[in-house]
Design a protein that fits this description.
The protein is mainly alpha-helical. It is built from 21 helices and 7 strands.
Length: 498
Amino acid sequence: MVVAEELSFTRASRRLHVVQSGVSSAVAALERELGAVLFDRDRHTVALTDAGRALLPEARATLAAARSAAEAVAEATTGLRGTLSVGMMISTGSVDVPAALGRFHETYPGVLVRLRVLPGGSADLARAVADGTLDLALGGETFIDFPVGWGTRAIVDRAFAAAGIDRQVTFEVAYYTTGATAHRSVITSRHNAAFWIVGYTFAVTMAFSALPTPLYVLYQARDHFSTFMITVIFAAYAAGVVASLFLAGHLSDWAGRRRMVLLAVAINIASGVLFLAWPATAGLIVARVISGVSIGMLTATATAYLSELHAAGHALVTPYLVAEALMLAGALALTVAPETATVLRGEQRPAYRPQRVSVPDADRPLFLAAAAAGGAVFALFGLFTSVTPSLLADLLHNDSHAVAGAVAFAVFGAAALAQIVFGRISRRSQVGIGLASVLAGLALVTVSVWLPSFWLLLAGGIVAGAGAAFRGLVATVISITPAEVRGEGLARWISGGP
């Protein structure tokens, strides 16, 4: 029955606290016993067959009857006992839930109350009560109604008062269509503004992670370390990213998107302070690890957030000060952005666990393909943000830091522009064109090193950058990831988890 409610063997196994293979075996045994297939399974979905739909209400009635029988016996011997399933939205301002539950428990201590939070609103609650999933639903809606003094308003007010419900009328309008439009406009404008706030904060923080790229040559000249040490410094950043993805990339699913983005920005600001306060080589490595932790935490969270809302000398000091100011501005603006994830508090909040690197069996091939493609794209950006300045200086004899920064900017700019240009074509075409462009661009970069040629290097970077099919890959991952674990799914993809 849980599989039928969730339409997912993975989510059913989590809800039942049973391994997925055990759930699958139990369903298969039931199907053999009944001589009928209850679920249609393909690579991406699980759906009830006609036999499954016919069995579901009977199964619910049977389980309910069994519970009622047991509770009737228990009540006759020890008083009222049983389980009460109560559904509620994230906010129920019209009902003091803790006080009501406390009084109920004092009166009926033998009754176990199970609370379920349904973020889909009163419609989801009504459906759950109708199909027997819930025994009771608590709502906390705000209302749009006619002005006080109108006959219809007086009738509605009396009906709510008779039911003992103190409702909140947010808008008073002469026409319901006017109120609906106004309410929708308020919500839309807040989320539109938040989209640009989050996008700005995401862009600035990601730009900070690439800030050391054109400065590596200066650090190398000052500290006399080799190109291999540049690779070590960048590897330290990558290690921070991967560790953060596994340990914190999923936390926004229950701690809140805004809170985790703010934390990520604060950590990156701390890494900038470390760049300034500890300019030695060891300081660079530690600062890059901390910056990587911030980016790992930020990338999946901000991507999920944005998708739900629509998404030497002064040269070694000034860039960090500018980036610190920009990130701080983004963090301050982010405090007014609305939250999009269901924030769980108190006992509802699950115990912390590291990232679970697991994917439903049906979606594993698609996910692995997206992870492999994503890994190639991230490796491309890693190339242009780590060793490209050294290639320019050593092979092409171009010591301009502005040129080194411009090359990296061109790669990232081409990637951003490609997301817009190819946004209207199919997801499959986006990924196909993108990977072909990445291969072509890397070929040009390889030839540019052999010749050597600056213009081939730049052209290769732009072509490869334009092939960064992030939009199609992110859309693919989101399509196979439940909304309640979207941050976790994106973190798995970015880390290349199976």
